[in-house]
Design goal:
The complex is a heterodimer of chains A (297) and B (435).
Chain A: H1 2-14, H2 16-19, H3 22-43, E1 45-48, E2 51-56, H4 60-67, H5 69-100, H6 107-114, H7 116-119, H8 122-132, H9 139-146, H10 161-186, H11 191-198, H12 203-230, H13 235-240, H14 252-262, H15 266-296
Helix pairs in contact in A: 3-15, 4-15, 5-10, 5-12, 5-14, 10-12, 12-15, 14-15
Chain B: H1 2-22, E1 36-42, H2 45-50, H3 54-61, E2 64-70, H4 72-84, E3 91-94, H5 96-106, H6 113-117, H7 133-138, E4 140-141, E5 144-145, E6 148-160, H8 161-166, H9 175-185, E7 189-190, E8 193-194, E9 196-199, H10 204-217, H11 234-250, H12 260-268, E10 272-278, H13 282-285, E11 297-300, E12 314-321, H14 327-340, H15 343-351, H16 359-363, H17 365-369, H18 374-386, H19 398-413, H20 418-432
Parallel strand pairs in B: 1-2, 1-3, 9-10
Antiparallel strand pairs in B: 3-12, 4-5, 6-10, 6-11, 6-12, 7-8
The chains are: A mainly alpha (297), B alpha/beta (435).
Chain lengths: 297, 435
């Protein structure tokens, strides 16, 4: 009996590398690997949930996606929305961080108030924006009218909807960029600045030739973090417009959600998700390369 | 256990034949004694009404009824998943206009005609002719009835009686008059507020369920005789265009984002002279706590299209039996449905605010005595009589085709080239349509 027990103990001891991580690996396999593998399998099938079993159709879903106007619309909306919001968030975030990066009275209080949008729950915030943006009963048009300005249609107009959503996204997420950049600024060495000042550089030159190159890796890291969420922005857009008017604000991510959970077309929806995943992946690989180049400088 | 149940049922049947020979036309309610059935229900006012009364049914029949109710969104998911995985469901609530083709293709719907025709299973007092024909048709697939209506709805034109009297306007009976009246009121200052002529749903897929009444009244249809999309036909294009123009020219701003909640609140705020939407929203309009126009609202059937056609849709919730349940339990489920939709319960539900699909409920003294909006009742009855049960595209993938349709409505509201948009949608619909 004891002999058998010690044999088991020895067996386990010698294979600690396998046995100790095994539970964690099993859980990871179940909740991450398996769903992704199943999703990949589904991309090659035609399957409406409830109607029969998945049928293998090879690359047909991707061929269909290629000819699907809503896919191209989704890509266009995604580039427009993400390009505009990421650029604004990065630019504004940097400027505000530089502004905050000096001692002034009440700076802590101002910073605390400033990060509230970032700290608030996205869906709750989006619901409030949705009401504020309503052209009839919204407070934004009320304020515009009360100072004699013409009211806008905001998200109810197909040309205004993306700029409006970008505005909300910038309002919500710029503080996050600021926070990251501010941490980066605080950790910059003081020596180059002293040297520059002694050499008579003006503030603009200091910013351009010292701050920006030094802060670049941090900026790119902030951009990567933000783009991960931004490229698959869902809660804000879905809550405020559901992709409307028509499909004017339907990103590829939103469309794949509609296909999967509105139309229950699991195969096609999975294929679209994979396309979104590839876009995010490629963007981040590029960013990563940029960052490495920046650190190499 | 099963054997015991069968035995009990057999014994029950024997008793039936003994009694029924001596008694009148009534069926033997004890014939499925001892059976247990499980119903999945939407947490709908009808469910709230019937749940406390189930004990009466259990006492009458000896059948044990387990009701599980969930809020609508959850309910649909739960039901789809349970039916899909072959869970033990004997009966359920269904919105046939939305789900009947999908459920019937999936093989989940037991036809009821054989039960209804069998005098041993269906009591003469149940009187199938008492139901509006439009709802029996709406709850049928390929001529077979698959559900019994428990909640009956349609859409109506609601208008401000006070404004119509004050400005001496006639209630529109044709689409031309509708447009003229909308134009007349649009932009008028009343009590310091600027009115819009009419408010309608304009939000993509959500708009299709109201727009469809305009489609039908303009003589249009979802598909043509060959089963292809009919959107490119002159009638369909005219319906798209009329609806879009009406909302753009005489409706609230931002029409393309109006769901029923936005549209009804514009009307309840007193900002619109008319609204076209579900008749059951009367409860909202007439609630003085929520609505500024309570007591001032009149109701009418949809105005007639260019050829004189008035064709609103009717929609309903029905009770259905699962095809995958066992015959003995299906029989018990039918007894339950029959009891839940008898004249007494339909009337009781109507008095509790659930619109009934039975004529007798609306004609009853009890209902008429408390009817505060007889014009609403009259218009509703008229719509039930002439209504069309198919309010969604006749396909399995309803949400997808509704989105395609909604895009044309959005384009029409935005004043784009409707014919081009409709043609594009027709081609897309032909490609995506699943039957």
């Amino acid at each position: 009996m004891t002999a058998a027990l010690s044999a088991i103990t020895r067996f386990v001891d010698r294979r600690q590398r396998i046995f100790f991580p095994a539970p964690a690996v099993a859980v990871l396999f179940l909740i991450i690997v398996l769903p992704i593998a199943f999703n990949l399998y589904l991309t090659f099938t035609k399957w409406t949930v409830g109607l029969g079993q998945p049928q293998f159709i090879g690359f047909d879903n991707f061929v269909e996606a290629f000819g699907d106007e809503r896919v191209w619309n989704g890509v266009r909306v995604m580039i427009y929305f993400s390009g505009a919001s990421l650029a604004l968030e990065l630019g504004l975030g940097l400027l505000i961080a530089i502004y905050f990066n000096r001692a002034f009275r009440g700076s802590e209080a101002v910073q605390a108030i400033y990060i509230i949008p970032f700290a608030a729950t996205p869906v709750a915030v989006a619901l409030i924006w949705r009401i504020m943006l309503n052209p009839d009963i919204g407070v934004i048009n009320y304020m515009l009218r009360s100072v004699g300005l013409p009211p806008g249609l905001w998200v109810s107009n197909e040309h205004m909807v993306i700029p409006t959503l970008v505005m909300v996204d910038v309002w919500k997420w710029t503080p996050m960029i600021t926070l990251i950049v501010l941490a980066g600024l605080k950790s910059l060495p003081p020596d180059p600045y002293e040297a520059a000042r002694i050499d008579g550089a003006n503030p603009l030159q200091i910013f351009w030739y010292i701050t920006l190159p030094l802060i670049r890796p941090v900026l790119i890291a902030a951009l990567m973090l933000r783009s991960l969420d931004n490229l698959k922005e869902f809660d804000l857009i879905y809550t405020i417009t559901q992709g409307g008017p028509g499909i004017a604000s339907e990103t590829l991510y939103l469309y794949s959600y509609n296909v999967s959970f509105g139309y229950f077309k699991a195969g096609y929806g999975s294929a679209l998700m994979v396309v979104v995943f590839l876009v995010v992946l490629v963007f981040n690989v590029l960013m990563n390369r940029l960052r490495r180049d920046a650190s190499a400088v | 256990m099963r054997k015991a149940l069968k035995f009990a049922a057999l014994a029950g049947l024997l008793c039936t034949s003994l009694i029924s020979t001596s008694a009148s036309a009534g069926i033997d309610w004890k014939q499925s004694q001892g059976t247990e059935i499980r119903f999945l229900m939407n947490r709908h006012p009808f469910t709230t009404y019937i749940e406390p009364k189930v004990a009466e049914f259990e006492k009458l029949t000896g059948i044990k009824v387990v009701i599980e109710a969930f809020p609508e969104d959850q309910y649909r998911n739960k039901l789809t998943i349970e039916l899909n995985s072959g869970g033990r469901v004997d009966g359920f609530m269904i919105m046939p206009g939305q789900d009947d083709l999908y459920y019937s293709k999936a093989g989940w719907l037991q036809p009821l005609d054989a039960y209804i025709a069998d005098p041993k299973l269906t009591d003469a007092s149940w009187d199938p002719k008492d139901f509006f024909a439009s709802f029996a048709k709406a709850s049928s697939v390929n001529g077979k009835q698959i559900g019994v209506v428990i909640n009956a709805e349609t859409s109506l034109l609601a208008y401000r009686k006070d404004l119509f009297t004050r400005f001496k306007q006639k209630v529109p009976t044709t689409m031309k008059e509708l447009e003229a009246v909308a134009k007349f009121f649009h932009g008028k200052e009343v009590d310091g507020k600027k009115l819009v002529g009419i408010t309608l749903r304009g939000k993509k897929a959500a708009a299709t369920s109201q727009w469809v009444d305009f489609l039908y009244s303009f003589g249009g249809s979802w598909t043509n005789a060959k089963g292809k999309s009919n959107f490119a036909s002159a009638q369909d294009i005219a319906a798209f265009k009329f609806y879009g123009d009406l909302l753009r020219k005489y409706g609230p701003q931002g029409g393309t984002m109006l769901h029923w909640a936005e549209s009804t609140s514009a009307f309840m705020e007193g900002k619109a002279a008319m609204i076209y939407d579900a008749n059951v929203f009367k409860a909202l309009y007439e609630n003085p706590k929520e609505s500024k126009v309570a007591g001032e609202v009149g109701y009418a059937v949809i105005p007639a299209g260019p050829t004189g056609l008035r064709l609103p849709h009717v929609s309903n919730w029905s009770l259905s039996i699962s095809k995958m349940s066992a015959p003995e339990r299906q029989k018990a489920a039918w007894l339950f449905i029959q009891w839940a939709t008898n004249k007494e319960n339909c009337l009781g539900a109507l008095l509790a605010g659930v619109p009934s699909g039975r004529k007798s409920s609306w004609d009853s003294k009890e209902y008429k005595a408390n009817d505060k909006q007889p014009d609403w009742t009259a218009a509703t009855m008229k719509s039930f009589d002439i209504g069309q049960g198919q309010w969604n595209p006749p396909v399995i993938n309803v949400p997808e085709i509704r989105d395609i349709t909604g895009q044309v409505i959005v384009d029409a509201i935005e004043g784009k080239d409707v014919a081009a948009s409709a043609k594009k949608a027709a081609a897309l619909m032909d490609k995506k349509m699943e039957r």
